Amino acid sequence: MTISFEGQVAIVTGAGNGLGRAHALELAKRGAKVVINDLGGARDGSGASSEAAQEVVRLIEEAGGEAFAHGANVAKFDEVQDMVQQTMEKWGRVDILINNAGILRDKSFAKMDLADFQLVMDVHLMGSVNCTKAVWDIMREQNYGRIVMTTSSSGMYGNFGQSNYGAAKMAVLGFMNTLVLEGAKNDIRVNALSPTAGTRMTEDLIPPEIYELMTAESVTAGALTLCHKDAPNRFILCAGAGGYASTRLFETDGIFLPEAQQSADEVKANWDAICDLSNQADLKNGGEQTEKFLTKAMTYIQSQK
Ligand code: NAI
After folding, report:
1. Same structural domain, 175 and 283
2. Which side of the chain, N or C, has fewer Cβ within a 10 Å radius?
3. Dist. CA 101 → ligand 1 center (Å)
4. Residue-range definition of the domain harbouring residue 130
5. 297 in any annotated domain
6. Are residues 236 and 283 both part of a single domain?
7. Is any atom of ligand 1 closer than 6 Å to the C-beta of 222?
8. Substitution candidate for ligand 1 out of 199, 203, 205, 206 with most atoms within 8 A of CB
9. Number of domains observed in the structure of the chain
10. Which atom of ligand 1 is nearest to the CA of 52?
11. d(CA 142, CA 95)
12. Whole-Å CA distances, 261 to 87, 257, 258, 290, 294
């Protein structure tokens, strides 16, 4: 095993079941001390229990590893802070945070209560924000940190009945993009995992024979490449059923229209050129877009002199 987490401390949220459980077990197998966070509620976020998390701790300890369970609701910052404080008291550092905890409240947007929209945002987006906030200064002081967001194809591409979930899953990518810029000088790298797996979250959506192929372990193999010492930065890794791919956000080179042509009619008339995929770029920050447009404008102005 070349990827080792020996001597490192990891917090995995929602690690009592499914993907988080598989991430935690594999991290522990490769030497990490792991905090098994889980609220232990149902798929829709109702209820709470420590049973699943305790079972994961038992499995890790039985195999000779170190772990403890914490039942923080990731949507509550004070509970998350308590978990991180206990981690620091016990192990003195936090090298890895995998923001994995999640729930579903699916309904078409027409039928969805705003409360269900808010709850899903609170768990997925604010849960990731709360946990990241609680470890951020620790990672900055250590000059080391690896954070994984869990996004979804539902956010990146859409999925009927998941406007709340899709919005939250896309939001964590926006969160990642800025953290990457702000964490760089302290060697904090932030990546995102877009999984697809047979878990309780998807069990009624996937036929049984396909469910068997979509193991959590196949996704975990990808997840661990996003949080080891040589991890990439700002990478979106998609993983499922043994397939691995990367989603990238590209922007076309676009066009420049002189002031007299800056009308809706001209924009529409130039649609094909605006959408032309040749010379598209993977921009590294928002300013690069402004810079590109200003360069085009300046080039035009110079050409008129
Ligand atoms: P799961 O339902 O098996 O596990 C999620 C875990 O998160 C549960 O143990 C649950 O108790 C815990 N949890 C929920 N709310 C929590 C809270 N407020 N605080 C602490 N723990 C909480 O689901 P699965 O499939 O393992 O999902 C893991 C992550 O992967 C989620 O973020 C999910 O949205 C994402 N995902 C999963 C996909 C799949 O195909 N299974 C597809 C795309 C994304």
Report:
1. no
2. C
3. 4
4. 9-246
5. yes
6. no
7. no
8. 199
9. 2
10. 9
11. 9
12. 60, 6, 5, 19, 16
